[in-house]
Amino acid sequence: MKNQLILLLGCALGTAAATAQTQPPKAPPVLLPVLDTDKNGELSAAEIANSSASLLGLDKNADGALSKKEILPPPPKGKKPVTPPPAGPPILVKALDLDKDQTLSADEIEDAPASLAVLDKNADGAISRAELKPGKPPVNPGT
Q1: Positive or negative: CA dihedral 108, 123, 131, 36
Q2: What is the pLDDT of residue 53?
Q3: Please, which residues bridge with residue 43 across strands?
Q4: For the chain, which residues make up each domain, given as ranges?
Q5: Helices (H) and strands (E) in the chain — how many of each?
Q6: How far is CA 46 from CA 1, 12, 56, in A?
Q7: How far apart are CA 130 and CA 143, in angstroms?
Q8: Rounded to two decimals, what is the model's pTM?
């Protein structure tokens, strides 16, 4: 009985390790570093206002739009490209990609300041770290 328990535990640990290795790593959000020019993890009113110009900095082929390839971060050298997590695109992509085609058209880039304003739940003109976390509404200190 003791040997069977050890064998069963070993199989369970082996399966867990194999499953962990086959799941793709999460893609780091590429849009936040581009939009967050002061690198504080939040988007100020000025950064939101300048978001269209910042996004165009990702437009490698200068077509005025951002493809999936331009939105995702480059893969680490010598490794396969990182795929987005199965839960869906990051909150910034969701806010900007109004037609949900996983690319940002020239119109969506132009409308970026207005689209980002939707994330500003407390209407202070900026997007805090709490507001950037999907599914977790920010705590309003005034209530």
Answers
A1: positive
A2: 95
A3: 127
A4: 27-132
A5: 9, 0
A6: 67, 52, 16
A7: 16
A8: 0.63
The pair of three-digit structure tokens given for residue 105, joined into one six-digit string:
């058209």
pLDDT 10s digits, 91-143: 888 899 999 998 999 999 999 999 999 999 999 999 998 898 866 444 545 54
Which uninterrupted H or E stretch holds 2? Answer: helix 2-22
What one-character DSSP code corresponds to residue 66? B
* Tokens read off for 27: 């893609």
* CA–CA dist 51, 128 (Å, integer): 15
Bridge partners of 127, per DSSP, are 43
Structure tokens, 129: 């770290």
Q: What is the pLDDT of residue 77?
A: 77
What's the confidence (pLDDT) of residue 105? Answer: 95
Whole-number Å distance between alpha carbons of 30 and 26: 12
Q: In the predicted model, what is the mean pLDDT of residues 10-20?
A: 43
Yes or no: say if 77 and 69 are a contact pair by the CB < 8 Å rule.
no
Distance (Å, whole) CA 127 – CA 138: 10
Q: What's the CA gap between 11 and 22, in Å, rounded?
A: 17
Q: How many Cβ atoms are within 10 Å of 24's Cβ, its own excluded?
A: 12
- Are the C-beta atoms of 108 and 96 separated by less than 8 Å? yes
